[in-house]
């Protein structure tokens, strides 16, 4: 599918058919996430793939939204806090891959760079979430490309989810992404006009 079509046709789907998704699609979706851009190539996204009926049943106790667990597949996107501590390695990899050629970043000492960009806990959390959000959008667009419906869901109990799926402390569940064949064909949702989102053209 053309990118433009994927962007225009994507909708948040809240009604799914029971039909299973081909296994290969699951890896195509995750691979789309893997290729997302991230600050200093942080890649803080990690996923729990919920696809058995038993696991989906368990998940239903963690969200007040029944449509989430009517989907045959739910990806739980988690933030890996360890990723933040590996920024130095990521910057070094980028330097070695030539990403920063002809920029001041090419010769910057990666340890010094990381020291200079320290953040308080709240800022670091927002930073990690922002990066994971990009991977999620890649998944939503890839789902559309594969003829699947999806929805980005943040209404769930983190505590219950961590307990139910034995999620280690280094991971924080960030979003749920139910995915399946759509059982509805929503019209485009309201959007602001271009005039409303352009502050100035200078
Ligand atoms: C960060 C984020 C969180 C969202 N959380 C939820 C949610 O918890 N439940 C839900 O039904 N939809 C959720 N959505 C979907 C939005 O409601 C939806 O994207 C918006 O209404 C526009 O509709 P569209 O996606 O069909 O274009 C979320 C979307 C985003 C980007």
TrEMBL record:
InterPro entries: Nitroreductase, Nitroreductase-like. CDD domains: nitroreductase. One of its GO terms (molecular function) is oxidoreductase activity. Keywords: Oxidoreductase. Residues 7-181 form the Nitroreductase domain. It holds the Pfam family Nitroreductase. It comes from the Bacteria. Belongs to the nitroreductase family. This is Nitroreductase.
